From TrEMBL:
Protein name: DHA2 family efflux MFS transporter permease subunit
Keywords: Cell membrane, Membrane, Transmembrane, Transmembrane helix, Transport
GO cellular component, one term: plasma membrane
InterPro entries: EmrB-like, MFS, MFS_dom, MFS_trans_sf
Membrane topology value: Multi-pass membrane protein
A molecular function (GO) term: transmembrane transporter activity
Annotated ranges, domain Major facilitator superfamily (MFS) profile: 1-442
Annotated localization: Cell membrane
Domain of life: Bacteria
Transmembrane regions: 35-58, 65-89, 95-116, 128-149, 155-175, 187-206, 212-231, 252-273, 285-306, 318-336, 342-360, 381-404, 419-438
Length: 475
């Protein structure tokens, strides 16, 4: 499994390290913040488009072959980004990396369930969770150091080196644990999935640069209509690309929306904070990266704690505690100005990163525990897809709000950041409203007997958020 662990680590490291580099990319390629944010949105969009198809790919392609193809894609994307001479080429390489991560995440968790015997799945998921959690903790700091010592290109060069190691490990050690059944593939669903998600996120993302032009409105409308057709078709056909019947279960649908909102809030803050530190407060990329580290460590520790508390306290109380902390952290961010001390930023960032894991862990667990055994895998994929797509849209909205400030001055950049923080707090308010609709399902998982398959699915759903350690899921 070492190659797959390394591959997923690469994906998470790439996802969380790019925010620090955005100001440098804007200067080097003379692009606006609305254009630069496609380095984040495009990556998540590629993940969201690929994720619904991985289940079928695993049934048609040898697992080892699929994993190697994904890792080679990541390497190609890293090389393209390292050598990019203009922004379109850079974005192309970035989206190739997103396709790789979208394949690697579900492949790793599907392999864990089949490679390890039941009594070792907890330990295997623990390694996977620690791998995923470690990447966002060091990502911004490592990126800041590399940019300070070399340039933003060093980030992609480093990713390329690790990708080579992951390819070697997978080629030498990995097996093919999943039997290929070659079920019927609904090509129309595949096309509708890619077209719908792509048009919707592209349309929202272009608002910051093009406003509500005819093209932008057209993309949003087409995306919404195609996704509606896609959803209808999944309910109608015998072998759906993704079984959406889980969304008809309120005990799953409500926390699924809640965790997607909290994920979008997290990504919005992760997008805004490094830029505000550099453009609003005048810090270097190295210093900004270092200041991101304490909250990342705290986030990891609180993730462990939230996982253990869920079985004892249930979802509602953890969500309420998380909402309270996130609201306090957001309010502190609103108080940051050009001359604010570093201590105020650290306090705001740490407080909000304490609250978010309690929301995400409890809502993800509540959603998956509401599903019957046979729907656990589809539920995990739905959560993964919703988080990536809603997160991409949330980042795009934060970019639009950032543009309302005067980016040419430090004070104007801080003002634009505040609009984005208000948007994050609005998402937290939606989470609070949803908490009153949560249904506490005390299943066998609460009795300390979590099923290995559900534990793996639950850990997979948490993967994109950096916040899940599967030893808690198997405890």
């Amino acid at each position: 499994m070492s190659g797959l662990y390394a591959g997923v680590f690469l994906g998470m490291l790439s996802e969380t390290s790019m925010n620090i580099a955005l100001p440098d990319l804007m200067d080097e390629f003379s692009v606006t913040s609305g254009t630069a944010q496609w380095m984040v949105v495009g990556y998540m969009l590629a993940i969201g488009v690929v994720l619904p198809c991985v289940g079928f790919l695993l049934k048609w392609v040898r697992t080892k072959t699929l994993a190697l193809l994904a890792l080679v894609c990541f390497l190609i994307g890293a090389v393209v980004c390292t050598a990019a001479t203009n922004f379109p080429v850079l974005l192309t390489g970035r989206m190739i990396q997103g396709v790789s991560t979208g394949i690697m995440l579900p492949t790793m968790y599907a392999a864990i369930v089949r490679v390890f015997p039941p009594h070792k799945i907890g330990a295997a998921n623990g390694v996977a969770g620690l791998t995923i959690m470690f990447a966002p903790v060091i990502g911004p700091t490592l990126a800041g150091v590399l940019i300070g010592a070399f340039s933003w290109r060093a980030i992609f060069a480093m990713l390329a080196i690790v990708a080579v190691a992951a390819i070697a490990l997978t080629a030498v050690f990995f097996v093919t644990p999943i039997e290929r059944t070659r079920p019927a593939v609904d090509v129309l669903s595949v096309i509708a999935s890619a077209l719908g998600f792509g048009c919707l996120v592209a349309g929202v993302s272009l608002i910051s640069d093009m406003g509500f032009s005819a093209m932008v409105v057209g993309l949003i409308v087409v995306g919404a209509l195609v996704l509606a057709f896609y959803a209808h078709r999944q309910f109608a056909i015998a072998d759906p690309l993704l079984d959406l019947k889980a969304l008809r279960i309120p005990a799953f649908a409500v926390p699924a929306v809640m965790v997607s909102c909290s994920f979008a809030c997290t990504l919005a803050f992760m997008y805004l904070v490094p830029q505000e530190l550099q453009r609003g407060l005048g810090m270097s990329s190295t210093m900004a990266g270092m200041l991101m580290l304490p909250a990342g460590v705290v986030n990891a520790l609180c993730t462990l704690l939230a996982g253990r508390l869920y079985d004892r306290l249930g979802a509602k109380r953890l969500v309420w505690a998380g909402v309270a902390m996130a609201a306090v952290g957001g309010a502190l961010f609103l108080a940051i100005g050009v001359g604010s001390p570093v201590a105020l930023f650290l306090a705001a960032h740490i407080v909000i990163m304490v609250g978010i894991p309690f929301i995400q862990q409890s809502t993800q667990s509540a959603a998956l525990h509401a599903l019957p055994r046979e729907m656990a895998a589809d539920g995990s994929t739905i959560l993964n897809t919703m988080q990536q797509v809603v997160g991409a849209i949330g980042t795009a909205v934060a970019t639009c709000l950032l543009g309302l400030g005067d980016a040419s001055t430090q004070a104007g950049f801080v003002t634009g950041s505040r609009y984005g923080y208000v948007f994050g707090l609005a998402l937290i308010a939606l989470v609070l409203a949803g908490s009153f609709l949560l249904r506490e399902e005390r299943r066998e998982a609460r009795q300390g007997e979590r099923r290995p398959a559900v534990a793996a699915a639950e850990s997979a759903a948490v993967a994109p958020v950096s916040a899940s350690v599967a030893e808690d899921l198997a405890a």
